[in-house]
Specification:
The chain has 328 residues and is an alpha/beta fold. The protein contains 10 helices and 14 strands. It has a 7-stranded mixed beta sheet, sandwiched between helices. Strands 6-10-9-8 form a 4-stranded antiparallel beta sheet. Helix 2 (44-54) links the parallel strand 3 (32-38) and strand 4 (59-65). Helix 7 packs across helix 8 and helix 9 (240-259) packs antiparallel against helix 10. The longest helix is centred in the last third of the chain and has 20 residues, at 240-259.
């Protein structure tokens, strides 16, 4: 029997049998499933993704909240990650766009008797966030693959703010499609035992997802406050003063979009680093220009159809990331 929140009208599921029963019922009625995975501490950016999902044709919208331990390389960060499920449920209820909330426990996502699949993502996990947080994107690959097994979505919606994560998940879906299709001349995989290699990444392990439904991946735009700060769960920990100063991050990134034609990539990055260094509270981890499709570093403006600029900056013990298009 499905459980519905008594005061909000949102279906709440805690295990695989429940969510899969609901999905099967919806499909029998001709609906598709749009899935918005989150780690909770919801904000307007999450809600915008839920709203975007609800506008797809003839869908039921599932939002999940699961703080995934395998993508945290720092146990203190995992402990400090904001959690407020009661407020999350209230926000979803007030918005009225989600049909269901999936709230699995760790053992439901990662059953003790099953090893999760392991994925690699080539350069996508070696730069920027991947370099600063070793193992992070392998954890992302594990949890997304597993949640897709459980939810069996037709559409998967992720935000632009975590652009590198979006690219990793795009590659994950490619790997899953290739795994379903089997060896081909196009993918030229190498197969050894239970491992399967692809051009930029690999899925391995006897318990790798078996023929999951591969959803269409949709990006939602970054939502910002009135001063340009990208909304995130972590920045809810900032003081009012810290939030005001953090808005300088996006101002610096915008400088790149306005002035890239007049500077070399290296000099442009140095200018932005210098501008951000004027805020004494900032600790800059990286400012990086990267190709929008491959995330390889940009040494010159030639041979790039699209370039983005990425930043990771600490303030008040909170690590903030942001990115924006430089061109086109």
């Amino acid at each position: 029997m499905w459980k519905m929140c008594g005061f909000c009208g949102v279906l709440i599921f805690h295990n695989a049998n429940e969510i899969q029963s609901a999905v099967k019922s919806w499909r029998a009625q001709g609906f598709k499933v749009a899935f918005v995975p989150t780690m909770g501490a919801l904000h307007d950016g999450h809600l915008a993704l839920v709203a975007q999902a609800s506008q797809l044709s003839h869908v039921r919208v599932v939002c999940s909240i699961f703080v995934n331990p395998t993508q945290f390389n720092d146990p203190a960060d995992l402990r400090a990650y904001p959690r407020n499920p009661a407020n999350d449920l209230r926000l979803l209820s007030d918005q009225g766009r989600a049909d269901a909330l999936f709230l699995p426990e760790v053992d439901e996502v990662y059953p003790p008797d099953n090893l999760p699949a392991t994925f690699t993502f080539g350069v996508l996990e070696e730069v920027m966030e991947g370099a600063m947080r070793p193992g992070h994107f392998r954890g992302v690959g594990q949890v997304v693959a597993r949640l897709l097994q459980l939810v069996e979505a037709d559409y998967l919606l992720l935000g632009e703010k975590d652009y590198q994560q979006f690219m990793v998940v795009r590659d994950l879906l490619r790997q899953l499609r290739e795994k379903q299709a089997g060896p081909s001349r196009l993918s030229t995989p190498q197969v050894q035992g239970d491992e399967r290699n692809s051009a930029t990444g690999r899925v391995q392990g006897a318990d790798a997802p078996s023929r999951p439904k591969i959803p269409e991946l949709i990006m939602g735009t970054t939502h910002r406050d009135e001063g340009g700060l990208a909304l995130s769960s972590r920045n809810q920990r900032l003081s009012t003063e810290g939030r005001t100063k953090a808005r300088q991050i996006y101002a610096g990134l915008q400088y790149a979009r306005l002035h890239w034609k007049h500077e070399t990539p290296d000099h442009l990055v140095r200018i932005i680093q210098s501008k951000l260094a004027e805020v004494p509270e900032f600790q800059i981890e990286y400012i990086q220009l990267a190709d929008s499709d491959t995330l390889t570093a940009v040494q010159d403006w030639k041979n790039h159809l699209s370039v983005r600029i990425f930043a990771a900056v600490w303030i008040e013990g909170v690590r903030l990331i942001d990115n924006t298009v430089v061109f086109p």
